[in-house]
């Protein structure tokens, strides 16, 4: 997939439609406690920075999950729509929302030290611990 190719998709019920330009075809898996509690397993996303557009925000609910980030969901069907920073232009969009399914590649796992033992991925990925992620985004 060309990284400049705009991707489109929607929530499960179709109430929320979105388009975005992912930074790459890479998928990241987050194993933090919040992501696993939110979706019952790891959150599989692609980074889109601020280049995300929603056709309408009427059915989008937003939950402030921390001092620095919030999570969006469809208020009709509950589909997870995004994880984004409150400041700084970072969007992580669940890759399953996009219509394109063939060109994605699992490339990174974060909060790898929080991953429970009952699942694992076969792909070789870049793995970052909770401390490494906090240092990366805090600038330390």
How is this structure best described in words?
The chain is mainly beta. It has helices at 33-39, 130-138, and strands at 7-10, 17-20, 26-30, 43-47, 52-54, 60-64, 69-74, 80-85, 91-94, 105-110, 126-128. 11% of the residues lie in helices and 36% in strands. The chain has an 8-stranded mixed β-sheet with strand order 6-7-8-9-4-3-10-11. The chain is globular, with a radius of gyration of 15 Å.
Précis, in short:
The protein has 140 residues and is mainly β. It is 11% helix and 36% strand.
Give the averaged pLDDT, no decimals: 92
Q: Report the strand count.
A: 11
Q: How helix-rich are the residues, as a percent range?
A: 10-25%
Stretches where pLDDT is under 50 for at least 5 consecutive residues are none
Order of helices and strands: EEEHEEEEEEEEH
Strand content: 35-45%
The general outline is: globular
C-alpha-based Rg, rounded: 15 Å
Number of helices: 2
Taking the alpha carbons of the first and last residues, their distance comes to 33 Å
Largest pleated sheet:
8 strands, mixed
* Oligomer status: single chain
Structural class: mainly beta
Strand order of the largest sheet: 6-7-8-9-4-3-10-11
What structural keywords apply?
single chain; 2 helices; mainly beta; 8-stranded mixed beta sheet; 11% helix; 11 strands; 140 residues; 36% strand; 3-stranded antiparallel beta sheet
């Amino acid at each position: 997939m060309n990284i400049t190719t705009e991707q489109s998709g929607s929530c499960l019920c179709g109430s929320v439609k979105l388009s975005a330009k992912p930074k790459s075809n890479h998928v990241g898996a987050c194993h933090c406690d919040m992501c696993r509690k939110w979706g019952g397993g790891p959150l599989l996303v692609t980074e889109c920075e601020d280049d995300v557009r929603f056709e309408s925000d009427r059915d989008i609910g937003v939950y402030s999950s921390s001092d620095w980030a919030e999570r969006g969901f469809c208020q009709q069907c509950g589909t997870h729509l995004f994880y984004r920073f409150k400041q700084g232009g970072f969007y992580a969009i669940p890759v399953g929302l996009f219509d394109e399914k063939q060109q994605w590649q699992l490339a990174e796992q974060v909060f790898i030290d929080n991953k429970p033992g009952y699942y694992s991925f076969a792909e070789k990925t870049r793995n970052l611990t909770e401390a490494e992620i906090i240092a990366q985004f805090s600038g330390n």
